[in-house]
Amino acid sequence: MVRRPVAWVVALVLFAEALGIAAVNWFLGVVVDRQDMSLAGLDPDMMSVSSKAGGVVFGLYFALCGLVALLVALRDRAPAGFGRVLLISAAVVHGLLGAFAWGLIGWTAFLYMVVVLGLVVLLLMTYDGRPDEPAGTAPEEGAGGPGGARGDEGSGGGEGPGGSEGLGGSKGPGAGDGSPVIPPAAPTAP
What we know:
- The chain has 190 residues and is an all-alpha fold.
- The chain has helices at residues 3-35, 44-75, 82-104, 107-126.
- The two termini are 49 Å apart.
């Protein structure tokens, strides 16, 4: 329901951030180059080049994260592997930038970073199911869902460790369809 719109918003925000970060760092590099001043004996050309390079690297990083979010929105599938790692790292970066922004810039920049952090986390959490399950499909009745075959431990249903849901039992509604394996109850001392 909210998965695709959140993924679209995250993609747009990350693309805008990529462009903004690259442009600001490039501008700072041009300013340092035109002032031709040294900072604690550092070469101004080196500072200019490193600012521009940092802007390009961070811009490409955020653009890649935006591409992952865009692919999530288009495919309506959870990010997997390297894409998931990229989005998690983007969330961590926004958390750290938010903490620095509070002290250096002010609460509005902090609020923006926290909103983007929340959107990225929401994107990651709304797709937190089976990675190959398309959006909009509900879990089957009987596969551990409401009224399913799992039941409570103490309900006396007669399904013990040797029953259809015991160790290695292949009978039952959830067997063989990829549903999670439920371990038996831990033994207790009398």
